[in-house]
Amino acid sequence: MNHWIIAPVVLPAVMAPLIVLLMRHDLTLQRVFSVAATLGLLTISAVLLVQASSGGPQVYFLGNWPAPFGIVLVLDRLSAMMVALTAVLGIGVLLYVIGSGWDARGKNFHALFQFQLMGICGAFLTGDAFNLFVFFEVLLIASYGLMIHGGGRDRLRAGVQYIAYNLMGSTLFLFALATIYSVTGTLNMADLALRVADLPEGNGALLRVAGVLLLIVFAVKGALVPFQFWLPGTYALAPGPVAALFAVMTKVGAYAILRFYTLIFGPDMETNGTFYADLLMPAAIVTMILGMVGVMGAKSLARMAAFAGIGSMGMLFMAMAAFTPAGISAALYYLVHSTLAGALLFLIVDLVQSRRGTTGITALPPMAQHGLITALFFGAAIAMAGMPPLSGFLGKLLVLDALRDRADMALLWSVILVASLLAIVGLARAGSTVFWKAHASPGDAAAHESEPLAFVAVFGLLALIVGQTVLSGPLTAWLDGTAAQVFDSGAYVDAVLGLR
Amino acid sequence: MEFLVASAIGLMTASGIYLVLRLRAFPVILGLSLLTYAVNVFLFISGRLTVDAPPILAHDTPGYTDPLPQALVLTAIVISFGMTAVAVMMALGAFLEAGNDRIEMTDAEDGK
Questions:
Q1: Is the pLDDT of residue A500 over 50?
Q2: pLDDT tens across A263-277, in order?
Q3: B94 touches chain A (CB under 8 A)
Q4: Where are the domains of chain B?
Q5: Which of B68, B87, B93 is closest, CB to CB, to A167?
Q6: For the segment B15-26, what is each residue's pLDDT rounded down to a tens digit?
Q7: Which residues from chain B sit within 8 angstroms of residue A297, using beta carbons?
Q8: I need a surface site. Which of A9, A62, A331, A386 has the fewest CB within 10 A?
Q9: How far apart, in whole angstroms, are the C-alpha atoms of residue A351 and residue A361?
Q10: What is the pairing mode between strands A72-75 and A58-61?
Q11: Domain coordinates of chain A in residue numbers?
Q12: B2 or A37: whose pLDDT is higher?
């Protein structure tokens, strides 16, 4: 048994209490240990990525209880990729937080940050549906703390909305899990895949109810219309770097949908067929349009970035809802890109906010380091809108290509292309007002610290996007293998239940 | 007995949803608590209702009751208790900062 599989959960779980208990009075010590732990996570995730690439799914049995009686963690290419993405984003956000001094504006940022990483990594690795619920709660409770970090009236009130929405989501999750358990008698994902495949005639309706409830829960996480209402306010009012970290939280919803609706409720299951795909596709289309219209209509940069996040989730889900290997591969490529681009946009918005005091899209005099931030925004906007030469463009091409052979191809292509045009217009309008018209406004830039480390983090994320563009060939080849593994549910089941 | 339990869960869920829709911090928290009670009972009976049976397989008793939902419901109770406590603290903080306990925000506050 490979013990490294549980390390991405254990490492932050040990570091977070250590930071709270031993270092709560010394910010420098907290920073050192938090960066060290996140670098450790990055190293472990790289090792896991290499291990996962070379073989089939690997299983970690907690307490060495045999599946399906104990909880299992499963490492395959998909989960290894998601953990690595989390670690990469985590280190970028953490450097930005330290560079911009966000962690000094409230207490216990680093402990909450580690708990957040623990929850996200756990959710990606677990092979048990109820354990997924537990890790969802871990990442949510840490996110509540991070969301209101720094305080302030509007942020607290948005935090209450966020909590209320997610508690409803958690309740729904439990209803869905209880219904699934009452039908199948198991919550182990591999065991579920077997039981659902040979479900007796007549139990299908109840299972479909549970499946739809579960889809709603993951749609809330993934900000899929009509469950996206929590996102704009939360992301716009959360601290900038926290919103950047939350860019991977919507992907937890996308990951869970991908895992559950290929492995357990896959399109080849007799009880549901393409039922869930048919629900997902219209929702994804509306999500993409709504997000990009929101980008055009937003009156502040923060809300614009939040709506761009919703729109990119729409595109991701459109590629995913095809449930073909090509579609999944394109969706995963776009997932990596949109996580990095979304986080980059939020960090730049935070740079603007800390220099101008507002994120409103209005013409104000130039700010400190105006040219540098303008250039960064230009790069992030190109990435987010999916224009050449960055990876957003390649991701969009892959998605379009994956949807080419469908009967409703004309509709899907026009939605993607028109929505992208809306995004370009919205981002160009905001950029020209905030960055270009500033030169026509009288007044001098207020002095501001140069924050070199924050810029290192932002340029690092941009470099990752450039890297993804340059390495697209090997990456797509690897992702094709990942998509093939996602559809090979037999190998997953065999690895967990040891039938071979 | 099935009817009694099912109607109790239904009633608690309905009241919970009604209270959540009131959009004031206190009713919303009460509503969320009622919803978690409902879902806890729902989880508990997902292993079917069995009376006077041990939660383990034993040779001297016929039948048993499913122990797994009991473990699940314990976890769910602990989590929902913690979550409710966090929600209360944050609602209190928002009330002290804003001076009222409305959940919904005006467009200006929301940064629209």
A1: no
A2: 999 888 877 788 999
A3: yes
A4: 2-98
A5: B87
A6: 999 999 998 999
A7: none
A8: A62
A9: 14
A10: antiparallel
A11: 274-487
A12: A37
